[in-house]
Amino acid sequence: MPKCLICESSFAPFISFGQMPIANGFLRPEERAEEYFFQMEVGFCERCGMVQLTEQPAREKMFHENYAFYSSTSRYMAQHFEKFAKDVQEKYTSSSDPFVVEIGSNDGIMLTHFAQQKMRHLGIEPSKNVAKVALEKGINTISEFFDEALAEKIVRENGQADAVLSANVMCHIPYLHSVAKGIKRLLKPKGVFQFEDPYLADIVEKTSYDQIYDEHYFYFSLQSVSHLFAMHGLELVDVAPQVTHGGSMRYTIAHQGAYTPSPAVTEFRAKEKAHGLHLPATYDRLRQNIERSRAELVDLLKRLRQEGKRIVGYGATSKSTTITNYCGITPDLVEFISDTTPIKQGKLSPGAHIPVRPYTEFSTNYPDYALLFAWNHAQEIMAKEEGFRLAGGKWITYVPQVSTFE
Asked: Taking a C-beta distance cutoff of 8 angstroms, is the pair 51, 218 a contact?
């Protein structure tokens, strides 16, 4: 049995998704024979409450010079990170010479708001192509993986930080103890670490199993986050739910005793207990719901294709890799995936090998149905795609249940 990476207890997987490729591993046709796969299983540790993969590909296979995700491609996410940055500036950067560090800073979408205020900042982004974009914007960025050793180096060169930030990154990192030690070293006595990631309660409630893929090693709750950081003299002092990525939670961590925990911490602890996030039976039900969702989606796609309908995927997301491979969705069901990211266009989707084509191929020849892989951006997409609706196009979604809508 695998051992929990937080508390080292043995735990059993509650679901296997089978052989999975790298979620962002969009590939050229000639690269198919060399494609990498791993066994993707998920388990729940009863002792510390952490939900986690049983294995993860080497980090260099996931984050590298050809990484295919740029945060700034979403207007909504740009607005979200601007608001995040302003909140940090108002609450935590009142010292005479504030210093802010972001772990997994991507293309500088959040740190640009600190740079504009002439505030000392440092972005840590291991994917060199994405870090290069940030540097070109004037964002101080280093292309390394964050851990305790790097934190020591940052403190020697820059001093301690008022705020350490991270968005949709912590769940990617299997060696969280080294990260927690690094954060403790990096924070000033009243400094805070704020991070947000997909929230386990939302995944369970919505059966949003496409949040599970190679980059997401952990699926956090207040219980598991508190357990982890308490092991390093750090304390969960605030939480704030976010709508991003289909349901996320922002956690605020500080040195033990530095702040009085907010009422929100008590409130969400009680909600997690009421929803049974501490019980193995909850994850058995999640497995059953995932299997039911898969069957319903495949049945719908096959029926529509038998009726002669054209189906095109919308958004070549990381999450779509889990859906297409677990459900066995190949080009005979979905003609192609429309995406606006140039680095993905002209390639094949990981594992399922569905062609990824420019958005113009969607907009100039609307299909009958669009399978909404980017469902977490539905509001932004619906506002943009009025033409598709007026042309009689319909959407297919699978979160929180499989359905079609105009």
From this structure: yes
CA distance 114 to 88: 10
Q: Do 106 and 130 touch, CB atoms closer than 8 A?
A: yes
pLDDT at position 357 over 70: yes
Q: Say yes or no to pLDDT of 404 above 90.
A: yes
Q: Distance between CA 334 and CA 353 in Å, rounded?
A: 10
Element containing residue 88 per DSSP (H, E): helix 75-92
Q: Are 261 and 238 in contact (CB under 8 A)?
A: yes
Range name among 55-59, 137-141, 262-266 with the lowest pLDDT average: 55-59
Query: Could you give the dihedral angle defined by the CA atoms of residues 266, 240, 397 and 286, in that order, rounded to the nearest 10 degrees?
Result: -30
Nearby residues of 47 by Cβ (< 8 Å), 6 or more positions away: 4, 7, 9
Asked if 193 contacts 238 with a C-beta cutoff of 8 angstroms, the reply is no
Same fold for the pair 71-278 and 298-405: yes
Joined together, the tokens standing for residue 116 give: 């504009």
- Whether the link from the prior residue into 400 is cis, omega within 30° of 0, is yes
Q: How far apart are CA 318 and CA 20, in angstroms?
A: 12
**48-91 pLDDT, tens per residue?**
999 999 988 766 655 545 544 555 556 778 888 899 999 999 99
Tell me the whole-structure pTM to 2 decimals: 0.91
Classify domain 71-278 at the CATH topology level: Rossmann fold (3.40.50)
CA separation for the pair 369, 357 (Å, rounded): 16
The pLDDT of 171-182, averaged and rounded, is 95
The number of residues making up the chain comes to 406
HEC profile for 241-272?
EECHHHCEEEEEEEECCCCCCCHHHHHHHHHH
Amino acid identity of 282?
Answer: T
Strand partners, 146: none
Answer for the pair 32, 3: CB distance below 8 angstroms, yes or no: no
The highest-level CATH class for domain 298-405 is: alpha beta
> Closest Cα to residue 82, out of 107, 101, 121, 110?
110
Look at residues 323, 356, 321, 354 and name the one whose alpha carbon lies nearest to residue 342. Answer: 356
- Domain spans in the chain, listed from the N-terminal domain onward: 71-278, 298-405
